[in-house]
């Protein structure tokens, strides 16, 4: 009943003007091959058009925006099919379904990642009249009540969308490829399930693709992933994706996280990279970043020959900044345009940037307009340090010191500063938070200390190694090195000084040497913990009818500098607070 009713509702909403509604994605095969490709497309032509849809988060209760957006897109795509020799396609950037129950009075089952969700999404994407491709986002394997494993959920995703593999490659015009990579981890996520993880097999495949299609042979690749890569320079959300450690592809794996931008820098066939994930609009200039800029405007960004573009959302209820927009790419042998399709403004098309090729391995981008900003938009802007280059000094917030650093003023919300640790890691402050930045790209990685703990304290960085000069290596395989052997980094301690309370807090790094806290855990684990607490509350209510029962959770492992663990209690949470005279009191 659930599936047939949902599809019936979708079909009823999308059928208009006698247009046929395609209910199976196979009607538009995601990868047109052989003779069929020659009939459908003129691959000798250099002209092409691609529609790019951001996070859909389809909810069968609220289909009006999808109906309107689809009709706007059909008009645009039909026009381009006539002028571009059929070289027209659609790409969805994933997160296809609403990540909550769409029938809350009947079930708590999440809609995202279910068979019902993906069949509805496939029907919707198949109704635009052009071939479609799709990559999976962080919510697309969220069918946790229907499937026991990521592998089973992924198999359904691929089958429903007629995808032979999680990744895709499609030739859209002469020596022009569309390439996509899918997130394949949800239940098995080591940290937050909202991280977008490209598995090792896809990453190896992608590296081979860019090697096999070099810029010097005239190849041009347009890449599509749900989240952007580290180093893209796109606007991100500090209050969400930065603090939770899910901004970038493979965010929690340092080497893999940096691998994508390294491939971009090395292989100049990669001309553009489109992503969604942030639910932010396309009116900001930093929703598009260029591979090079005028030296008078700042340091060289080191992004190869690639333009990065953020894609917004179609439905009002999923937008973080009220925008409802999609991307349109129009290209030929001279370059390409990145445009906005504004769904709140009748599907009007606005050129945002024009990119012109300069030979095979360079391109120049020009913005078509300044920021179109609202008063609340500054909330979404995250400061990123600038290290400068041969022509530019580092930005004024860089704190440089030779030995130790002790700040003379307490931290406020307005404090902006950053510095290099001896090990090469980069820490800095913004909006009262201490954040770690990537040492290569200076992109934000994650929260180290929150404003709740940092405000009104001073920060110090001091030497903490033994006086004999013992240094600690952060490289693997050096665990048995003798003290006194000089390694890569001087051992240092980051301290929070509370002058009023007379306390000093040591900010210990993680075991891998990083500082940002992987504090958001796998969603599957968290949901099970909530269920256990719910069961405990029910039992407590039954057993303690005359009392107001308090239910708390206890977690491990517990971290201490002691070599012996004798206690597991968390003072004030799972145990009572100690009073000065040694007695205890409930709180």
UniProtKB/TrEMBL annotation:
<dbReference type="InterPro" id="IPR051918">
    <property type="entry name" value="STPP_CPPED1"/>
</dbReference>
<feature type="signal peptide">
    <location>
        <begin position="1"/>
        <end position="20"/>
    </location>
</feature>
<keyword id="KW-0732">Signal</keyword>
<protein>
    <submittedName>
        <fullName>Calcineurin-like phosphoesterase</fullName>
    </submittedName>
</protein>
């Amino acid at each position: 009943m659930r599936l047939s009713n949902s599809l019936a509702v979708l079909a009823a909403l999308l059928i208009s003007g006698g247009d046929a509604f395609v209910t199976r994605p196979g009607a538009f095969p995601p990868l047109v091959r052989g003779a069929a490709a020659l009939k459908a497309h003129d691959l000798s032509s250099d002209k092409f058009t691609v529609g790019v849809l951001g996070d859909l988060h389809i909810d069968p209760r609220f289909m009006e925006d999808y109906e309107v957006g689809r009709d706007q897109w059909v008009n645009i795509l039909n026009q381009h099919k006539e002028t571009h020799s059929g070289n027209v396609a659609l790409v969805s950037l994933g997160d296809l379904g609403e990540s909550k129950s769409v029938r809350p009075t009947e079930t708590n089952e999440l809609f995202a990642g279910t068979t019902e969700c993906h069949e509805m999404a496939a029907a919707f994407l198949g109704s635009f009249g052009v071939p479609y491709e799709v990559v999976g986002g962080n919510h697309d394997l969220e069918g946790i009540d229907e499937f026991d494993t990521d592998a089973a959920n992924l198999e359904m995703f691929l089958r429903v969308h007629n995808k032979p593999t999680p990744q895709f490659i499609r030739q859209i015009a002469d020596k022009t490829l569309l390439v996509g990579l899918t997130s394949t981890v949800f239940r098995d996520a080591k940290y937050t399930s909202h991280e977008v993880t490209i598995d090792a097999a896809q990453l190896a495949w992608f590296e081979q693709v860019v090697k096999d299609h070099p810029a010097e042979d005239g190849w041009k690749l347009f890449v599509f992933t749900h989240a952007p890569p580290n180093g893209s320079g796109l606007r991100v959300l500090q209050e969400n994706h930065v603090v939770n450690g899910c901004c970038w592809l493979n965010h929690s794996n340092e080497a893999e996280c940096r691998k994508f931008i390294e491939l971009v820098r090395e292989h100049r066939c990669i001309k553009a990279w489109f992503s969604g994930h942030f639910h932010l609009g396309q009116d900001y200039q930093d929703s598009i970043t260029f591979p090079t800029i005028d030296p008078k405007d700042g340091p060289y960004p080191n992004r190869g020959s690639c333009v990065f573009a953020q894609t917004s959302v179609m439905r009002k209820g999923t937008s973080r900044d009220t925008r409802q927009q999609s991307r349109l790419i129009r290209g030929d042998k001279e370059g390409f345009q990145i445009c906005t399709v504004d769904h709140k403004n009748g599907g009007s098309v606005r050129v945002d940037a024009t990119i012109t090729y300069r030979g095979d391995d360079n391109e120049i981008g020009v913005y078509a307009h300044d920021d179109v900003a609202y008063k609340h938009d500054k909330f979404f802007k995250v400061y990123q340090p600038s290290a400068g280059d041969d022509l530019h000094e580092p930005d004024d917030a860089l704190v440089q010191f030779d030995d130790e650093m002790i700040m003379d003023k307490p931290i406020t919300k307005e404090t902006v500063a950053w510095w290099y640790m001896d090990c090469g890691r980069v820490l800095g402050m913004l909006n009262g938070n201490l954040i770690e930045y990537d040492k290569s790209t200076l992109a934000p990685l994650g929260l180290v200390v929150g404003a709740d703990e940092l405000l009104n304290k001073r920060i110090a960085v001091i030497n903490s190694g033994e006086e004999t000069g013992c240094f600690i290596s952060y490289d693997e395989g050096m665990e048995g090195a003798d003290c006194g052997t000089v390694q890569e980094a001087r051992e240092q301690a980051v301290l929070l000084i509370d002058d009023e309370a007379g306390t000093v807090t040591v900010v210990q790094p993680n075991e891998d040497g990083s500082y940002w806290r992987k504090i958001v855990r796998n969603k599957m684990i968290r949901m099970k913990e909530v269920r256990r607490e719910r069961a405990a509350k029910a039992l407590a209510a039954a057993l303690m009818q005359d009392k107001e029962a308090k239910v708390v959770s206890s977690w491990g492992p517990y971290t201490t500098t002691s070599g012996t663990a004798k206690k597991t209690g968390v003072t004030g949470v799972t145990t009572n607070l100690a009073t000065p005279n040694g007695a205890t009191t409930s709180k």
